[in-house]
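Response to reviewer comment R2.3. The reviewers asked that we include at least one raw input/output pair. We reproduce the pair for Medium/long-chain acyl-CoA thioesterase YigI here without editing.
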Amino acid sequence: MSQPPFELTDELQQAVSSFFQRIPFNQMLGIELDELSTQRVTMHLPMKPELIGNFMHGILHGGVISSLLDVAGGAMALIGAFDKHQHLSSAERMARLSKLGTIDLRVDYLRPGRGQRFTASAVLLRSGNKVAVVRSELHSDDGTLVAVGTGTYLCG
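Raw output as returned:
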């Protein structure tokens, strides 16, 4: 018997949003969620002096770039896992999803991170019972593609 199409309800959107907003590192960076859907996750990060890696040119630190790609990828993997585990009770689903973690992240830095706002978007490439693969992109405020990432996440 096939499952009904997965729908990201307001309740599930709130659960994903709450999960990521409660992570102190995300708060410290200043990451803000823009879009949560079954097709895409989008979030942004305003530039601030503490995030500069190259102080001579005011360029966003590479670790911040990879972190933002990872957070966007993790949110997308979590949404994919909700779909895969919709047959479970809420308690069982949350127990499994509490184990969400990054297995591998490959980042390609394409251009320097110049700008005042950086936007990361992520799409699900594959979602299995235990592992999800996500593709993420980071753009600066003028639309320049700064970096791309492919992440593998444990989600079950």
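The chain has a mean pLDDT of 89. The beta strands are 32-36, 41-46, 52-54, 59-60, 101-109, 117-127, 131-140, 145-154. Further pairs are available on request from the corresponding author.
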